[in-house]
Amino acid sequence: MQTVAKTPAPPYYAVIFSSIRTDGDNGYGDAAKRMVELASSQPGFLGFESVRQEIGISVSYWASLEAIQSWKENAEHREVQKKAKVWYSSFRVRVCRVEKEYGF
Asked: CATH assignment of 12-98?
């Protein structure tokens, strides 16, 4: 079941990963699942949301810029990052500070 991430009151940070996939799975599905599991165990991780159509958009939420940097430098995460050109024809990472949120 998909849910919207439950985040704390702002401010906090969002890392937005927008991508266009290459053809074929090439181990992507298993690696993506593992990265969410691994990120979830990192200090400062707050939540995750992802959708994929023609463009995939994944958003991870973090308590601080230091937590984001620590995740980026995680050894297992760095190994998976090396496969970017196998899995994506293009991607962009954006780091944002969330100042306000609302919804139901």
From this structure: 3.30.70.100
